[in-house]
Amino acid sequence: MLEQSDSQRRQAEALILARLADLVQADPRGTALSMATASLALLASVFPAGLTIQDQQRILDNLPGTDPARIADHAMSPEGTRVAVLLGNYLMRCAIDHSPLSFATTEQVQDEAVTEHAHYRAAGAINHGFEAALAEGFSGLGVVSMSINAVVTRASELGLHPFQVVRPLQKGVARTLQRIAPRDQDDSEEAAVTALAQQLGISRSKAREHLRQGRGG
User: Fold this and answer.
1) How far is residue 168 from each of residues 32, 89, 90, 127, 164, measured CA to CA in Å?
2) Is the separation of the CB atoms in 76 and 42 below 8 Å?
3) How many domains is the chain built from?
4) How far apart, in whole angstroms, are the C-alpha atoms of residue 212 and residue 142?
5) For the chain, which has fewer Cβ within 10 Å, the N-terminal or C-terminal residue?
6) Which of 76, 98, 120 corresponds to the end of one domain?
7) How far apart are CA 166 and CA 55, in angstroms?
């Protein structure tokens, strides 16, 4: 994950667990949870925040009840925050991928059988609702929040298991983080192709054609 290869990660994990063997044996659940929060504390030391007074005030506004000491312990630089969120998303993906309760193949087969024109109409209807909410005066963040809440509510009404719902949410987090990930020009173009294909429900080749046409190429 991240900068580590799979073999490096496994070696590091084995070393850490060996050194914490007594704690794991005494309280495996508590140790696992403590290791997760300890990793955040370590990331905060690796990626110091360097906050201005205005930055600290924004955090206080975001998180009423916190204090400067907790901010000093948890705040990170933008890159540190990105890495921490990637870590959390990685853990979520691993858990979801290995749970049978997140099974979604049946739904994927059904959705892939829908015509391309139907994909366009569905995407258009969703985007129209988004634009209509913006026109009512809500902020972009407000509309996004309402959309996510609506999706979660509707998923429950449709009888979907929460783990099934987490799967697209996890993928959405990954796509969001791509916007701030270091990349070269080729990576940026591929990310744009992927985003357009997913938004319109079309193949990557067709999405690439749309982008080229939009650029006059």
Assistant:
1) 26, 12, 13, 18, 8
2) no
3) 2
4) 32
5) C
6) 98
7) 31
In a domain? residue 78: yes
Task: Copy the structure tokens of residue 110.
Answer: 């059904």
Last residue of a domain, one of 98, 132, 147: 98
> Considering the domain boundaries, does residue 187 fall inside one?
yes
pTM (two decimals): 0.74
Distance CA 74, CA 35 (A): 15
Residue type for 9, please?
Answer: R
Q: Spell out the residues 6+ positions from residue 117 whose beta carbon is closer than 8 angstroms to its own.
A: none
Least Cα distance to 173 among 105, 87, 98, 50 occurs for: 87
Closest listed residue to residue 2, CA positions, set 49, 64, 46:
46
Structural domain that includes position 212:
182-217
> pLDDT tens for residues 133-149?
999 999 999 999 999 99
Q: Which residue has the tokens 């933008």?
A: 78
Report if residue 89 sits inside a domain.
yes
The CA-based angle 136-141-142, given to 5 degrees, is 45
Is 126 within the bounds of a domain? no
Per-residue pLDDT of 34-92, as tens digits, reads 998 888 888 998 999 989 999 999 999 999 888 888 898 899 999 999 999 988 998 99
**In the chain, pLDDT over 70 holds for what percent of residues?**
84
